Amino acid sequence: MLSRKDFIKLGAAVSVASVASKLQSGTPNRKKGPVVVSTWDFGMEANAAAWAILSSGGYSLDAIVEGVAVPERDPKVNTVGLGGFPDRDGRVTLDACIMDEQLNCGSVACLEYIVHPAAVARLVMEKTPHVMLTGEGALRFALEQGFKKENLLTPQAEAAWKEWLKKAEYEPKPNWELNHDTIGMLALDQQSRLAGVCTTSGMAWKMHGRVGDSPIIGAGLYVDGEVGGATCSGLGEEMIRIAASHSVVEAMRSGKSAQAACEAVIRRYYKRRGDKAHGKQLCLLAMDNAGNVGAFSLMPGFVYSVNCNGTNEVRKAAYLLDE
Ligand code: SD4
């Protein structure tokens, strides 16, 4: 049972949600691409790179790999690719997955030394009989495919890790104040082909070998061209628990809009987890196969970037609970 206090918060969220629905009224009942959306405000630059391909008639799968390559190679982004914060042993381990409109998918987890894990995930999808490669095997595959081995631990990330080592306390708190986390991206191209990708260095200071939601098909990302796609940011363990992205896509399949589907999944999570949900952050972003976009988070602070009709903007997601 929800407490009275919880009901009040739910009530407040409904009004925020309706504001968010109004904010999205720029794209009601879209029938065609291109549209590209991604998590957080660093998604703006990533969207712009994807848009260059989408607007010239390119394939959504090419667009998303190019798009997320921007934060992957940016050493200032501490949550994706090069410059990502390491695990507790000082090792930068990356997770990524990719999926197209026909349920083709590929993934890499705990991949070290490779700046662009999303591009490797695409090759797992296209060139192997498998969906997921991990650790040493993923690295070997990447090198065989011509990727270069590089040191991903920047001096800044190393300094932050050494600072953390002084206390070495692991608090799995997604960094929502700093507004830059995992990038999940969904794109619909001019031929209405939908594709999605998710790429991250995962939770800073995690145990070596820890895998989050981002490379798990159905958790960090799910795409079905018949319906739409969804991706996530936030605390991976929580997203895995509820198969978050798949749940959003299935809610859309049952008739909910992208926005209503994200809200329903967060509400159900909170109802099931109760107190265990407090202090966690779950951020959902969805797009149906006509290009309509929805987003919702458990806690405040989630923003996402939308590029549609050539306008690239950051939007605030509605949320369920106050801090
Ligand atoms: C993970 N979901 O590894 C990622 C991290 C993230 O906001 O998105 N943080 O759990």
Outline the structure in words.
- The chain has helices at 4-23, 43-54, 60-73, 117-127, 135-144, 155-165, 236-241, 244-253, 258-273; strands spanning 35-39, 94-100, 105-111, 132-134, 183-188, 194-200, 221-224, 228-234, 282-288, 293-297, 303-308, 311-316, 318-319.
- By secondary structure, the protein is an alpha+beta fold.
- It has one domain (30-301, 313-318): Glutamine Phosphoribosylpyrophosphate, subunit 1, domain 1.
- A hairpin with a 5-residue loop joins β5 (183-188) and β6.
- α2 (43-54) packs antiparallel against α3.
- The protein is globular.
- Bound molecules: N-hydroxy-L-asparagine.
- N-hydroxy-L-asparagine binds at residues 174, 181-182, 200, 202-203, 212-214, 233-236.
* Biggest pleated-sheet summary: 8 strands, mixed
N- to C-terminal distance = 21 Å
Q: Provide a count of the helices.
A: 9
Assembly level: single chain
CATH class: Alpha Beta
Strand content: 15-25%
Which geometry do the CA atoms define? Answer: globular
Structural class comes to: alpha+beta
Uncertain residue segments: 1-28
Q: Give the beta-strand count.
A: 13
Identify the CATH homologous superfamily. Answer: (Glycosyl)asparaginase
- The pLDDT mean sits at 90
Which ligands does the model contain, each kind named once?
Answer: N-hydroxy-L-asparagine
Question: What value does the Rg take, in angstroms?
Answer: 18 Å
Number of domains: 1
Summarize the helix and strand pattern as letters. Answer: HEHHEEHEHHEEEEHHHEEEEE
What is the fold-level CATH name, i.e. the topology? Glutamine Phosphoribosylpyrophosphate, subunit 1, domain 1
The CATH architecture name reads: 4-Layer Sandwich
